[in-house]
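Quick one, tokens below:
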């Protein structure tokens, strides 16, 4: 569709007949993501607040549909790259966010860590180096003052603010550790996301939400007992990248609900269903 045809459609968004408006919106949405740049320009030049509001809704719907399409493709693919998954999640709130920007920021954190890292160190000491760089030098830490903020689940916000929730801090930690060739992966504990360092000779656990505290399998068993839960193997072993993105989406749903943003919570629930086996939201 030509720009002049789109312009003619947008001009009908201030029609008094709701049926006309509904038809126009349907027509614009049928064009797909290609209409977004044009709508953004129209929003800037249009002085009618009602039309601007309708354009905003159209842009959001198109961006949301694009996100769903991308996330499903990621889920159905074979790679399940973790940073790509976290980037997609963040584009729900920041649709113009570029994956390349996140890669560059993580590359810088990796470089800062690599400068102080030595591959010949004992595993505990390797982890202590990462802890020192991330939590002392770069000042990453738990956002305990505003724990339920949606920004805690968005990797771009956490990279900027240096404050996050357990899963986002663990993702940043894990991406840096893996780039240093360390066998560090995520573990889905109830009420807390942690990391495990596991090779042929060692296995221990890391709590990125508590400045990289190192603890043992016995500590996890004690934690499970305190919660009065039956121990499961998944509480001790690495989870998949899909599991991590699902949990991050669940956190985002909870944050939006706490903030009273129920429409956003419902949209994120749909994203979760899109990548859940059998449509099960889980817990």
């Amino acid at each position: 569709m030509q720009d002049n045809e789109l312009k003619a459609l947008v001009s009908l968004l201030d029609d008094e007949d709701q049926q006309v408006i509904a038809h126009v919106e349907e027509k614009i949405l049928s064009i797909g993501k290609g209409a977004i740049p044009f709508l953004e320009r129209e929003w800037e030049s249009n002085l009618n607040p009602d039309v601007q509001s309708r354009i905003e809704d159209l842009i959001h719907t198109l961006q949301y549909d694009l996100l769903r399409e991308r996330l499903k493709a990621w889920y159905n693919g074979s790679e399940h790259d973790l940073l790509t998954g976290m980037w997609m999640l963040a584009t729900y709130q920041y649709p113009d966010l570029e994956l390349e920007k996140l890669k560059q920021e993580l590359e810088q954190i990796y470089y800062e860590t690599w400068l102080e890292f030595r591959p010949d160190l004992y595993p505990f000491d390797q982890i202590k180096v990462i802890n020192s760089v991330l939590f002392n030098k770069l000042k990453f830490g738990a956002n305990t003052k505003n724990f339920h903020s949606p920004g805690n689940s968005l990797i771009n916000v956490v990279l900027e603010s240096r404050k996050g929730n357990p899963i986002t801090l663990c993702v940043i930690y894990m991406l840096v550790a893996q780039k240093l060739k360390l066998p560090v992966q995520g573990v889905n504990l109830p009420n807390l996301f942690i990391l495990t360092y596991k090779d042929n000779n060692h296995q221990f656990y890391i709590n990125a939400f508590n400045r990289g505290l190192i603890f043992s399998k016995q500590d996890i068993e004690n934690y499970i007992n305190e919660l009065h839960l039956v121990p499961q193997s998944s509480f001790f072993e690495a989870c998949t990248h899909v599991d991590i993105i699902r949990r991050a989406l669940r956190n985002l749903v909870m944050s939006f609900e706490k903030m009273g943003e129920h429409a956003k919570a419902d949209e994120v629930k749909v994203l979760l269903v899109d990548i859940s086996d059998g449509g099960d939201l889980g817990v």
